[in-house]
Structure formats: C-alpha cells, structure tokens
Design a protein that fits this description.
179 residues; alpha+beta; Rossmann fold; 2 domains; 4-stranded antiparallel β-sheet; two-stranded parallel sheet; binds adenosine-5'-triphosphate
Length: 179
C-alpha cells in the first residue's frame, strides 16, 4: 500500500537576489513498510523536504499525499492533528522544548492530543533510548546524543504512520560511549 506520494514538489525561499530554489520538481512515492534514505550535500534540500513532508513548512508548488490525503488541502486544525498523529519528525537540531523535562518532551504529542500517556510504552521508550535516570532532566542538562534520543522518543511515542528522520544518528558516537 502506498503511504506517501510526492508530486512535482518545489520550494523557493526568498526573492530576487536572495532567491534560493531548495527543491525543484521532486516526485516519488513510498509504500508502507519501506525505508527510504535521502542523501545529498549540505544545502541540497534534505531538511526542507522533510519539513514539508511533516507539514511544518509549506511547498511553493506541488502536492504531498499521505495515505491518499492531500496534506496541504487541510485547514490549520486538521494540519495540527495530522502533525501530532500521523507524522513523527526527528529534527536535525532536535527542537526540544527547553522548559520541559525528558519525559514531558517525549509525551508532548500525546498530551497535546488530549490523550492519556501509555506508561508502559513510555518506560519502554526511555529504556530503549538509554535515558533511564534522566526523566526529570531539562534539555540543557543533557548531552547532545541524549537530546537527540529524546527527539527520537517524541517522534515515536504516538506510533505515527511515517517517521521522518533528519540525520538522526548525528550524535551516535555518544550512544556508543554511554551504553
Ligand atoms: N528558511 C529559509 N530561508 C531561506 N533559505 C533557506 C531556508 N531554509 C533553508 N534555506 C536554504 O535552502 C537550501 C536547502 O537547505 P536545507 O536545510 O534543506 O539543506 P540540507 O540538505 O538539509 O543541508 P544540511 O546537510 O547542511 O543539513 C539551502 O541553500 C538553505 O540555505
Ligand atoms: Mg539538513
């Protein structure tokens, strides 16, 4: 089953002399269960593409269909629900909420959805990500690798339809040292 289809996606930032064509006519599709890696040099548009697929940025033109639905035809409220339930976005620079602790950051999409946290899933996630004992720590009290793993936990907590991971192993060495 096709889960994601992208048609002729273009993203242009800025205008005139400052214009940057970050994406230019991108089309592809992904089936459920497929794993797709996007590679390219710095500045080639990888993060821009993932941000648009996760609906935290909008395309200049082109279409994104997630599970058959035209993502950018949704209104703001529908888009907010889409971001929380269907997409797990692991940001290149983590994007954790500085005033929330590890546990609160991981469970944020569930809480924002007004749902009850599945405590056994949360504990499983914390264990899997080697974050035991850090549950009450704020992001600025964590190493880069720990922050990255909190970001991974937040993306997976809601069991989304698709996980969009932007360089999610950039701090992998730290995981190796600490485990
Ligand atoms: N908000 C923005 N305003 C203007 N230009 C932007 C903006 N965001 C990204 N760009 C530009 O768009 C291009 C693509 O950037 P993007 O962050 O998608 O690259 P990337 O492939 O993820 O790079 P890296 O490997 O360094 O993370 C770059 O030229 C960048 O300068
Ligand atoms: Mg990037």
């Amino acid at each position: 089953m096709e889960i994601l289809r992208v048609e002729n996606l273009t993203k242009v930032y800025g205008q005139g002399e400052n214009e940057v064509r970050a994406l230019d006519g991108i089309s592809f599709s992904i089936k459920q269960g497929e794993f797709l890696a996007i590679i390219g040099p710095s500045g080639s548009g990888k993060s821009t593409l993932l941000h648009i697929l996760g609906a935290v940025d909008v395309p200049t033109s082109g279409k994104v269909y997630m599970e058959g639905k035209d993502v950018f035809q949704q209104n703001e409220e529908q888009l907010a629900i889409f971001r929380r339930r269907q997409v797990g976005l692991i940001y290149q620079f983590y994007n954790l909420i500085p005033v929330l602790d590890v546990q609160e950051n991981i469970t944020l999409p569930v809480l924002m959805d007004g749902r009850k946290v599945n405590q056994s899933r949360l504990q499983e996630m914390i264990k899997m990500l080697h974050l035991q004992g850090r549950e009450k720590h704020l992001p600025n009290q964590l190493s880069g690798g720990q922050q990255q793993r909190v970001s991974i936990g937040r993306a997976l907590m809601n069991e989304p339809s698709i996980v969009l991971a932007d360089e999610p192993t950039g701090a992998y060495e730290i995981v190796q040292q600490k485990s």
